[in-house]
Amino acid sequence: MYYYIVYSSVTFATAVRNKFRFDRQQISVVHTPSVISGTGCSYSIRLKNKQKAMEIINYSKEYGVSVKGFYEQNSNGEFIRLS
Questions:
Q1: What is the pTM assigned to this prediction?
Q2: 6-47: per-residue pLDDT in tens?
Q3: Rounded to an integer, what distance in angstroms lies between the CA atom of residue 45 and that of residue 67?
Q4: Strand blocks (E) in the chain
Q5: What is the dihedral of CA 39, 41, 47, 49, to 10 degrees?
């Protein structure tokens, strides 16, 4: 199961990922899957730990980085919007 935090630009996604890269978590910046992006022009942070995802979202909001969406990808590959 993966969690996706969607950002409007690769710059924002990379900057946020870099803040958390030493937390011993697998955190990747990926093109947002078209199923959830709508426009096809966004980037996401992908990770497995929901608590870490919430920490990243809170950090983003605190520093004025807009989060376009937060999704969970279940074991069937389906995406569920969490916020």
A1: 0.91
A2: 999 999 999 999 988 777 778 999 999 989 987 767 999 999
A3: 10
A4: 2-7, 28-31, 43-47, 69-73, 79-81
A5: -50
